[in-house]
Design a protein that fits this description.
363 residues; alpha/beta; Rossmann fold; 2 domains; six-stranded parallel beta sheet; two-stranded antiparallel sheet; 8 strands; globular
């Protein structure tokens, strides 16, 4: 308890941003891009594509044609809104649920399929536009430090660019993320940290992993800006990330954005969320679906109808099928591939192992 001679030395607050409610009704002034029909319908298609791609990946995994896969079902507005706010020369530092952002920026669908099929060459993106984007990071949270490193390079080179790292709520309880926030504040780095707060860190609910009232307030101790947004509102996500990127590129430092959303599927294809989560809770959360929300808004504007929906879904299905064909026709890497790209010159012990792998590759 404070004593009578204690004085307040600092005060903080966390703001919350929402522009579209669950019915797709505007509840706040909309940003300029919301009046661009082509841009908004592109965002809607990107979210629909993400959902359809995820469903195909689950099917491929279930039939033994893909490795363990993590979907973004119910939270598609976060990766799409984030990527839509970025410039081409910014750098995306993704975790393993950001395929929507990667597709938006130019990663080919079959490249991610090759990666999730167990071949790291899928990260050798063909499009020069994404050549500097980092690969998928499986280790939870440590890519926040990678993003801080990228941002440090931008600062040293005096480049008006920014790095954007996206990670889940569970990552915010790891030292890697705290360290990244701290160095971003200390060095005024041009980096944006986006938290996909989907309520669950695998089987651990958000209230079991941290006592913080919000995850956005974890920005405060690091001395960077913090904001909470409705993560199922793609307008709010894009607007918040765009604002943070402008701040970063202008030399005003980093931002931590907490996007409130919900994971409607299992953590990944190796998980069964029914063991720890009430199915009734999941059913209730469908009402906040980001795709339904934006679709309702588009219909209200007269920019969308059933015919356009059917045409889009058919086009998406064909695009995914074509990517799957390329992936399935891609030969597996040789066993020696595990030794490539690790060292400029392999140490003797690894060179011997590589020789053995090559010798017995076809045995």
């Amino acid at each position: 308890m404070p004593t009578s001679h204690d004085t307040t030395v600092a005060r903080f607050e966390i703001r919350f941003r929402r522009m579209l409610d669950e019915r797709g009704t505007a509840v706040a002034p909309l940003p300029a891009f919301a009046e661009d029909e082509a841009e908004v319908t592109r965002m809607y298609r990107a979210m629909a594509l993400t959902r359809a791609f995820d469903a195909k990946c689950v099917n491929l995994q279930r039939t033994g044609q893909l490795g363990t896969y993590a979907t973004s079902l119910g939270q598609e507005a976060v990766p799409v809104g984030t990527a839509a706010a970025m410039r081409g020369d910014d750098v995306l530092v993704p975790s393993y649920r950001e395929c929507g952002a990667q597709f938006w920026r130019g990663v080919a669908m079959h490249e991610l399929l090759v990666y999730w099929g167990g071949d790291e060459s899928g990260h050798a993106y063909a499009d020069p536009a994404v050549a500097e984007d980092l690969p998928v990071c499986i280790t939870v949270g440590n890519h926040a430090l990678h993003a801080a490193g990228v941002a440090t390079a931008f600062r040293v080179r005096r480049q008006p660019r920014a790095a954007v790292a996206v990670f889940g709520d569970g990552a915010t309880s790891k030292g890697d993320v705290y360290e990244a926030i701290n160095v971003a504040g200390a060095w005024t780095l041009p980096v944006v940290f986006v938290i996909t707060n989907n309520g669950w860190a695998i089987s651990t609910p958000r209230d079991r992993q941290t006592g913080a009232e919000t995850l956005a307030q974890k920005a405060i101790a690091g001395g960077i800006a913090g904001l909470q947004v409705d993560g199922n509102d793609v307008f709010a996500v894009r607007d918040a990330v765009a604002e943070a990127l402008e701040r970063a590129r202008s030399g005003d430092g980093a931002t931590l954005i907490e996007c409130l959303t919900y994971r409607l599927n299992d953590h990944n294809t190796a998980d069964d969320a029914r063991r720890y989560r009430d199915p009734a809770e999941v059913e209730r959360r469908w009402a906040a679906c980001p795709i339904r929300r934006l679709k309702a808004w588009l219909r209200g504007k007269g920019w969308w109808d059933d015919d356009r929906e059917q045409a889009m879904q058919a086009d998406i299905a064909a695009e995914i099928d074509a990517a799957v064909e390329i992936y399935l026709a891609t030969p597996p890497p040789p066993p020696t591939a595990m030794f490539d790209h690790l060292h400029a010159e392999l140490p003797a012990a690894l060179a011997d192992q590589r020789a053995l792998a090559e010798r017995y590759a076809d045995a």
